[in-house]
């Protein structure tokens, strides 16, 4: 199976991105985690993205905050799909990160999830890998069924409690 790259602009993004890492572990998807900054280590960003396909990666997840150019810079150097995770920054509540990631110019897409949407970045990456992996596709449908069962149980519980 192809690997998922989880790239963060800073170690300060890890507390959010643990949500992504947990989902990848839950699905037994191989992944590697790196701290690479589009601004502080631009050479590493270039090097990583331009060799990622040859190293067996299938998807890149790029999490960054503030002027969040990491996803766009990585996408510039690879044809692998790049998923951007806007990290909520302290001053502008993550809107800065969201707009920096989502407003890519045509030709270089970055699939952008919600502000702090780490879990969905992992699920989206898994959905991409599942296109050519039936076992993974089955795990995804089991995951959705479990989620639906949990909501149904909450629905039943709240009805019981309110009507009591
Ligand atoms: C971004 O700047 C990082 O992705 C992080 O979200 C933000 C702040 O980084 P630190 O100053 O905490 O290292 O590049």
Topology at a glance:
Layout: E1 3-8, H1 14-26, E2 31-35, H2 42-51, E3 57-65, H3 70-76, E4 82-87, H4 95-102, E5 111-112, H5 118-130, H6 134-163
Helix pairs in contact: 1-5, 2-3, 5-6
The chain binds 5-O-phosphono-beta-D-ribofuranose.
Give a structural overview.
- The chain has 164 residues and is an alpha/beta fold.
- 49% of the residues lie in helices and 17% in strands.
- It has helices at 14-26, 42-51, 70-76, 95-102, 118-130, 134-163; strands at residues 3-8, 31-35, 57-65, 82-87, 111-112.
- Strands 2-1-3-4-5 form a five-stranded parallel sheet, sandwiched between helices.
- β1, α1 (14-26) and β2 form a beta-alpha-beta unit.
- The longest helix has 30 residues, at 134-163.
- Bound molecules: 5-O-phosphono-beta-D-ribofuranose (RP5).
- The site of 5-O-phosphono-beta-D-ribofuranose (RP5) has 9 residues, from β3.
């Amino acid at each position: 199976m192809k690997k998922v790259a989880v790239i963060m602009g800073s170690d300060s993004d890890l507390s959010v991105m643990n949500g992504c890492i947990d989902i990848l572990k839950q699905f037994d998807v191989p992944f590697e985690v790196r701290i690479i900054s589009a601004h502080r280590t631009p050479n590493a960003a270039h090097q990583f993205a331009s060799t990622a396909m040859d190293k067996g990666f299938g998807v890149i997840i790029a999490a960054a905050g503030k002027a969040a150019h990491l996803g766009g810079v990585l996408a510039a150097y690879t044809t692998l799909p790049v998923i951007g995770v806007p990290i909520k920054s302290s001053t502008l509540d993550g809107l800065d990160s969201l707009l920096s990631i989502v407003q890519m110019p045509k030709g270089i897409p970055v699939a952008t999830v919600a502000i702090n949407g780490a879990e969905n970045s992992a699920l989206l990456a898994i959905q991409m890998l599942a296109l050519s992996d039936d076992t993974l596709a089955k795990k995804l449908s089991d995951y959705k069924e479990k989620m639906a069962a949990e909501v149904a149980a909450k629905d039943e519980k709240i009805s019981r409690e309110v009507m009591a």
